[in-house]
Structure formats: C-alpha cells, structure tokens
C-alpha cells in the first residue's frame, strides 16, 4: 500500500498513532487537573491511585478512577469485538471505531461547555467514565494496527525500551526516534491540555476531538485509495488472463 505523502502505510500509521498519543496527553491533563485527579487514558495512574487510596490515602479519589478503569476496559472489549474479524492494518472497522471515538469526543466537548461538570459530582463522573470508554476504544484500535512501540496511551514501556535498547546499554538503538517522539508528544499533549484548561474544559476536549477526527479521515482516505489502486492493478491483469 502506497500513500501520496507519507510514502507507505506503515509510516502513515506511525504518524497517525503519534497524533493520538499527543491527544492522550491532552485528555489525561484535562481529567487529572480539571476533573478530580482521574486519568482517562493512562490506566496505570488510576490503578496506583486506587492502591494508595485503599491504603488510607483519604484525600485521594476512589469512585472516578474505579469507574474510569472499568469503562476503559469496556471500551477496549467493544473495540476488540468489532475488530476481531478484520485483518491487520487499517480496515473499515478501524474507521468505524475511530469515528465513534471522534463523535464521542465532540459530544463530550459540547456537554462540558453547557453543563456544570466541575460543580456536579455526578456529571463529572459521567464525563470521566465516557472519556475512559472512548480512550479504551482508541487504545484497542491502535493496538490492532500493530505500530511497533506505539500504544497511544502509555509510555512507560516506551521509555524502558528507549533506555534498555540504547547504544549506552549496548543495544542498537532500534526505534529510538519513534520512542522519543512518543514520549515527547504525550508530554506536549499534557502541556497543551493543561494550557487549554485556563480557557475551558471544552477547549481541551475539542482539541482531542479535532485530532481524532483528522486521524480518522486521513486513515480512512488512505485505505480507500489503496483499495482502489489494488483493484485497478488487479483488473488489467485479469483482463490479460
């Protein structure tokens, strides 16, 4: 599969997954800083928060991290079922899953703009739960694309790989560029999300929604173009036969 700008499907998918990694930084900054210290993309943070809360950290949130963890898993399970019969790489199911994520983010952006989600605990919990559901869907969909070293939602393993495979550690430095980019982009996404909170929660969500939409449209267009090229190449060969 060739693309007109990025050169190959693998490179295009890498760029798109890096964009979603940036988006994860945005939504996690919004959730943690704007909605009572809950992560909606990085579930490691929620597991740690819950462990500390159970050990007696009375000031730590429990309900929202627990709900976020449960809904993230639900989103991943739903995406896994949707994508179960699709092959590796981009597929119509990939487009459908990421379209649902994009639409959900846009709807959430409108919701937090109109509703007092920071003042009403029930509304705030609803937002973080739905956002975790969307991030679980996104993470499972990204995993299906099998872009090496890019998960879009966590960089601990990426940091480990960057260090342990580095030349300093006696390795070959495989994938160091994409690993470094993933780390930098999730950090920059968190910076952008934190900055957006100075304006409104809806701005951070709108930024994440815009990125998800751009990724979906770009990936789907490339997939359709590749399918059309493959069909055009197949038809003349069949005519010669």
UniProtKB/TrEMBL annotation:
Pfam family for this entry, one: DUF1275
InterPro entries xref list: DUF1275
Keywords: Membrane, Transmembrane, Transmembrane helix
Transmembrane stretches, start-end: 12-35, 62-83, 95-116, 122-140, 180-197, 203-222
Cell membrane listed as a keyword: no
Protein's name in the database: DUF1275 family protein
Native source species: Arthrobacter liuii
């Amino acid at each position: 599969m060739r693309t007109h700008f990025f050169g190959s499907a693998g490179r295009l998918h890498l760029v798109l997954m890096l964009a979603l990694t940036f988006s994860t930084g945005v939504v996690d900054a919004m959730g943690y800083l704007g909605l009572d210290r809950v992560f909606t993309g990085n579930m490691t943070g929620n597991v740690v928060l819950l462990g500390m809360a159970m050990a007696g950290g009375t000031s730590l949130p429990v309900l929202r991290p627990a709900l976020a963890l449960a809904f993230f898993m639900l989103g991943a399970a739903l995406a896994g079922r949707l994508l179960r019969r699709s092959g590796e790489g981009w597929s119509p199911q990939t487009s459908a899953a990421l379209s649902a994520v994009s639409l959900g983010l846009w709807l959430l952006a409108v919701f937090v703009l109109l509703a007092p989600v920071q003042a009403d605990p029930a509304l705030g919990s609803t937002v973080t739960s739905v956002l975790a559901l969307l991030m679980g869907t996104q993470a499972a969909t990204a995993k299906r694309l099998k872009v090496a070293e890019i998960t879009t939602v966590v960089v601990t393993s990426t940091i480990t790989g960057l260090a342990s495979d580095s030349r300093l550690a006696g390795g070959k430095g495989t994938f160091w560029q994409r690993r470094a980019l993933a780390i930098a982009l999730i950090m920059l996404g968190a910076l952008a999300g934190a900055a957006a909170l100075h304006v409104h929660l809806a701005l951070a969500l709108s930024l994440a929604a815009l990125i998800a939409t751009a990724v979906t449209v770009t990936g789907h267009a490339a997939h359709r173009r590749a399918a059309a090229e493959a069909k055009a190449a197949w038809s003349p060969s069949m005519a010669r036969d």
